[in-house]
Amino acid sequence: MYSHATTGANFDINNLYEAGRLDVVARCCLNVLWISEHIRDNAQVIVSLNGGPKPPVAIRFDGSKLGDIFPSEKGIAFVIKKALKAVRDENWIACHQGVSVSRKSFQDVIKEASNIYVLDSKGEHISKANIKDGTFVFGDQVGINAKELAFALRKGKKLSLGPKNYLASFAVAVVSWVLDQK
Ligand SMILES: C[S@@+](CC[C@H](N)C(=O)[O-])C[C@H]1O[C@@H](n2cnc3c(N)ncnc32)[C@H](O)[C@@H]1O
Q: Hey, whose CA ends up nearest to atom 26 of ligand 1?
C-alpha cells in the first residue's frame, strides 16, 4: 500500500485522521489480514508510509505469524506507533509478533516483489483477468503518485474493479475475497 500518512511516532492514537489518514491504512490492513476473528494466514501487507517527518518507512504485517493485535483501527495503529519508534535503517527489524519495519522505499519494496498487479480503475477487469497469488499494489485516499505508479507498472499490470473510484479499503476487501474463492 502506498500511503501519504505520517512517519512520526508521535501521533494521537485517538485521531488517526490527523496522522495523514492512518485510519485509511488501518482499515486496509484489517480488510486484508482479518476474516472476522481469524487471520488470513496466507496474506502479507506492506505499508509504504511517505509523509513527514522522515520518509520513507515500510511496515510489513505477515499474516502467518501475526499475533497480539486487536483487530480494530486502534489495534493496528498501536502497532504502527511501535514500528515507527523502532525503525532504524533499510534492513527489516522485528517490532511486534509478525510485524517488521524498515526504511525501504516504495520502489525498494516493488523491486523485491513478483507477479505485480496495480489496482487501478483503468486496468483489465478483475472478472476477466485470471489473477494468481502475487503482489497487489494500491493507493490511499490520494492514490499512488505518478512516479511511483509508473515504476510499479514497469513490473506489473493494472487490475480494475470497474470504472467507479472505490475506497482503498473496499478495493482490497474485494480482491482478498476474490483470492479467497480460489
Ligand atoms: C480512493 S482510491 C484513490 C483515489 C485517487 N484520487 C486516485 O484517483 O487514485 C484508493 C485506491 O483504491 C484503488 N481503487 C479504487 N477504485 C478502484 C477500481 N475501480 N479498480 C481498482 N482499484 C481501485 C486504487 O489502488 C486507488 O489508489
A: 139
